[in-house]
């Protein structure tokens, strides 16, 4: 799979993703523009089951060891992390 630009299904909706795609962070209320690359993905791979599949800025994405990067909500659920 080429990760520069691709489409994926998330919550029943097809979205554009990849490091060549610019969009706002998926955290409600955040307007920071990010690229939708794997480094901004919640989970280990697009369409995987280990995160919500959202794309987040550095402020709203957390390292969760074997789970990869997770958003705040998934991090709390899986790792018992931030409050």
Describe, in plain words, how this protein is organized in 3D.
- Helix content is 10%, strand content 33%.
- The chain is mainly β and 83 residues long.
- The protein has one domain (6-79).
- The strands form two sheets. It has a three-stranded antiparallel beta sheet, with no helix packed on it.
- A hairpin with a 5-residue loop joins β4 (61-63) and β5 (69-71).
- The radius of gyration is 12 Å and the shape is globular.
Strand residue percentage: 25-35%
Taken in chain order, the helices and strands follow as EEEEEH
Strand tally is: 5
* Biggest sheet strand line-up: 1-2-3
Q: State the end-to-end distance.
A: 36 Å
- Class of secondary structure makeup: mainly beta
Radius of gyration (Å):
12 Å
Q: Number of helical segments?
A: 1
Please give the largest β-sheet.
Answer: 3 strands, antiparallel
How many separate domains?
A: 1
Q: What share of the residues lie within helices? A: under 10%
Contiguous runs where pLDDT drops below 50 for at least 5 residues: none
> What is the overall shape?
globular
What integer is the average pLDDT?
A: 84
